[in-house]
Amino acid sequence: MGLLSLGTPLPWAEAQPLASFVRDEGIEQLINIYSRCKDKQGDVLLWGDELEYMVVSLDKSAKTARLSLRQAEILEQLAQKEAQGSLGPVTYHPEYGRFMLEATPAAPFTGAPTDLLNVQPNMQLRRSIARKNLLPNEVPLTVTSYPRLGVVNSPFTEPFYPPNGPAARSDFLPDEVINPHARFPTLTANIRTRRGSKVSIDVPIFVDSQTPRPFVDHGPENYIHMDAMGFGMGCCCLQLTFQATNITEARTLYDQLAPLAPLMLALTAASPAYRGYLSDQDTRWNVISGAVDDRTPWERGLVPPPEGFTTDNSDVVIPKSRYDSVDSYLAQDPVLLADEAHYNDTKLVVNKRALKRLDDAGFDPLLAQHFAHLFIRDPIVIFRELLHQDNSTSADHFENIQSTNWQTLRFKPPPPGSDIGWRVEFRPMEVQATDFENAAFTVFIVLLTRVILSYKLNFYMPISKVDENMRVAHHRDAVLNETFWFRKNVQRDSPKEYTKLSLDALVNGSDEFPGFIPLIRRFLAATSVDLDTLCELSKYLSLVSKRASGALPTNASWIRQFVTSHEDYKQDSAISESVNYALMSELDRLTQADTPPGGT
């Protein structure tokens, strides 16, 4: 979540008239950063991960599992110990949900293969320290979506609060589940106010033998309905950030990781349940996308804009939420430049005012349109005390827009006054139940970035096919049953040919595709990695390989199987209190044993 600004956040009625000012100032801040850092060279590979936890209160006597809302107390304890130097190489941060914790390494990892062996121990240490600072009945679980968050007529938090409140006005969630820092309730309220209504999220119900038909739940028939930001921002994930050697390498990494985002979303699928029901999808992305969709009815194309409406944007209609997949490639890559319209083949709405200013400042067209596209959004939270800044030393207005464009990847300029370089954040992965799994996917992606850059691989394909893959990645058991578009030949000068492949073929290789893991093994064999390190890394690659082949179930598949096979389950798609308690207890057992659900 990063640092939280202190000050007085403005309600939407006061913030909206200042939106153009903040955007203009943010663009000036970006131009200043670019002017200082565009020629920055020689940064070493550094990277880190972010893990998010839910704090769950288990009552063994009552057989209940509730989300603990003690985030502030827990973080205060941890901050005191960090100030005393007793935490070690880890650090903790607040998150949107008052039941959530975020933990990261205190310092980034390096590019050395041996440093990859420090990932799992660091994750284990983070969880161990968190656990020691919880109450005896509380456990830190890496669960992507809490199955009973927002269930009707039954407590799901400790303490319990009835639903509704001035920020979200939800029929299912109380405002007390929101982090009390002023930014978060204001963000929630301003998204709702700008949109003109509560957010609306509908995911298909999993139909079992006793599921009511039609299934009716406050929204469209046969869909689970959610109406608050907390349903999306209350999900947990695993994110990685990479520092590149320079801006060119960062742009290349951004582009080549974009087609991988849907694949990694499907591979890490871990969220089959919402509001006390099993859904017919396995991943969270569209839930979060809907949870922060602040587009007005005319921006969603539902009604004409109001009379006299004007905009700096190139179109009134904005096709996606501000939390969605990336919309364009941005590298100055000969492959992309040779046929940019073929690859950036979807409609890209840009802020024309921002685009002209970036063009005038010497940004190349691809980089200018990338940022001009981000700046079609309004700043949602403006702090009164931070309105007027020194644009030569501050990036707060830029980050106000940048950090609330929650896409599958984020291209991150160096912060002013720091030694940090150009970075890329990889955001699609769902958090896994165990540290071993989270370490495995982390190691896999880190090694794959090294392979991409070392072998100059070419994953370019039309953005429209990446978008299609994102939709497919949500499907139930997509790992086993779906195929995904990908480039047939990943060499630099290969023809523009694409085919649909299973995740097994993409990860493990086939007659049609070399496979990501075989490419990684080839890369490792060509480096001076000692045998012991190779053996340890192989354990992580083996888990990813088995997940792709179906030999090991996804967390989503395992959760669904656990629920449907429990003796208290009624074949009606509903996850009862007793089933949820059994699920959380089993996840805690697997967490402590660091054994992936479904085997090793």
UniProtKB/TrEMBL annotation:
Q: Does the keyword ATP-binding apply?
A: yes
Q: What is its pathway?
A: Sulfur metabolism; glutathione biosynthesis; glutathione from L-cysteine and L-glutamate: step 1/2
Organism of provenance = Magnusiomyces paraingens
The protein's Enzyme Commission number:
6.3.2.2
- Source species, domain of life: Eukaryota
Signal sequence span per UniProt? none
Q: Which UniProt keywords apply?
A: ATP-binding, Glutathione biosynthesis, Ligase, Nucleotide-binding
The family assignment reads: Belongs to the glutamate--cysteine ligase type 3 family.
Q: What is this protein called?
A: Glutamate--cysteine ligase
Q: Which Pfam families match?
A: GCS
Q: What class of enzyme is it?
A: ligase
Query: Which reaction is the catalytic activity of this chain?
Result: L-cysteine + L-glutamate + ATP = gamma-L-glutamyl-L-cysteine + ADP + phosphate + H(+)
Give one GO biological process term.
Answer: glutathione biosynthetic process
Listed GO MF terms: ATP binding; glutamate-cysteine ligase activity
